[in-house]
Each structure stands twice: as structure tokens, then as C-alpha cells.
Design a protein that fits this description.
InterPro entries: DUF6843 (IPR049293). Helix content is about 35%, strand content about 25%. It is α/β, with parallel strands linked by helices and about 220 residues long.
Length: about 220
């Protein structure tokens, strides 16, 4: 076995594997690099076992490792949202407001209590990545009922009651600075919150944010 040739080829394969896992967009560069490494290793006259471990194993591991990397990169700790019992309609979560509330820690998880008007203002930054939420109806006596996660756009898959994360956005044209927010939607047999036809960002939300900001001045 030509050790020098083997280690050069193996190094090229490892580099190609790492960058291919990090980003699909780099495959156009990683594939030629992998092929060159494969050829170099093949000419190094290694045993069949070593060749399989060096050249075949990275190919078999690429897809699962890519999924694991994407999951780890975008993973967020679980957050719990306590929603007033019976509430339906949109819930707006406004981030990075000094006047906003700080979530409680219950059972090791950040726990947010949604106000009766469905507008929750917090002092934490908005997170990107995979949504890792649990939703509960909260009765006045403290009893919790877990809510299923819904598909906002497909009513045939929707349970009732259930909650759907419908997206995030930003408003930059008000006094006091931009507003960063996310929106949930609670589906139920009876609508109690704002109408489904209303804008996600309505005058009520803007008024609540402005009121909150004035209180911290």
C-alpha cells in the first residue's frame, strides 16, 4: 500500500464529505473532489476492506449526517405556550421589546402565558430554525389541556381544537422602531378571538406595542 497516496486521497474524501454535509450548494465542488480522492485511494492499492471504509462509507453516511446537521443547526429548546381556555383565532407574539415579559421556567422549559387578547409581548429575540413548541389551554383553576398542532392550509388534516404556526414578519414604519413578530392560529368549534379575515397585524396589535413602549419610558 502506498501510504502517502492513501492519506492524500482519504483527506480529499473527508474534506468533500464535510463540506457536502454542511451545504447542498457545495456539492458541485464536493463531488469532483470526492472523485479525485476516490481515484487516488484506488491507485494506492489498499485492501478491499479499507477501500470500502474510505470510499463507500462516506457515501452511505452523507444523507443521514446531512439531516442530523440540519436538525442540530436549526434546533431550538422546547417552549410551552399557555393559551386562555377556549380562545380561538390569531395569537401574535412580539419580540425584543424592553417592556415585554420574561417567560417563566416550568419543568425546565420556557413557558409563555398568552393574554386574553391574544397579543403576547416578550423581551426575548425571535429565534429561527425548527419550531419546537407545545401548546396548552389553561383554565382559571390551573388545569392544562394539550392542543394538537394543525395544518393551517389543509382543513382536512385539521383537528379541533388545535394550533398552527403561520409565520413571522416585521413592521418597520411606526414610531419607536420596528416590530418583529410571529403568528399562531388557534382553531376551535367556536371563534372567540379576532376574525380569520382580519389582518395579522391589526390596529390592536400596534396599539398594544405602543402602550407597552410608553410604559417603559
Amino acid at each position: 500500500m502506498n501510504k502517502q497516496a492513501y492519506w492524500i486521497g482519504a483527506s480529499l474524501i473527508v474534506i468533500a464529505f464535510i463540506f457536502a454535509v454542511i451545504s447542498y450548494y457545495l456539492l458541485i465542488f464536493c463531488i469532483p473532489l470526492f472523485v479525485i480522492g476516490l481515484i487516488v485511494v484506488s491507485f494506492a492499492r489498499v485492501t478491499i476492506k479499507r477501500w470500502i471504509l474510505t470510499c463507500v462509507l462516506p457515501v452511505a453516511l452523507w444523507l443521514p449526517c446531512s439531516y442530523m446537521f440540519l436538525y442540530a443547526y436549526g434546533w431550538n429548546p422546547k417552549e410551552v405556550y399557555l393559551i386562555p381556555d377556549g380562545y380561538t383565532g390569531p395569537i401574535s407574539i412580539v419580540y425584543e421589546e424592553k417592556c415585554g415579559t420574561t417567560p417563566l421556567k416550568e419543568n425546565g422549559f420556557k413557558t409563555f402565558r398568552v393574554p386574553d387578547n391574544g397579543i403576547l409581548i416578550v423581551n426575548l429575540p425571535r429565534k429561527n430554525g425548527f419550531i419546537n413548541h407545545e401548546y396548552y389551554y389553561l383554565k382559571k383553576d390551573g388545569t392544562k389541556t394539550k392542543l394538537a398542532e394543525a395544518n393551517y392550509y389543509d382543513t382536512s388534516l385539521r383537528q379541533v381544537p388545535s394550533v398552527s404556526f403561520t409565520g413571522s414578519g416585521m413592521i418597520g414604519s411606526i414610531s419607536g422602531g420596528e416590530i418583529q413578530y410571529s403568528e399562531l392560529w388557534v382553531f376551535g368549534h367556536k371563534r372567540v378571538g379576532r376574525s380569520e379575515n382580519e389582518s395579522k397585524v391589526d390596529s390592536t396589535l400596534l396599539a398594544e406595542v405602543e402602550k407597552c413602549r410608553r410604559s417603559s419610558q
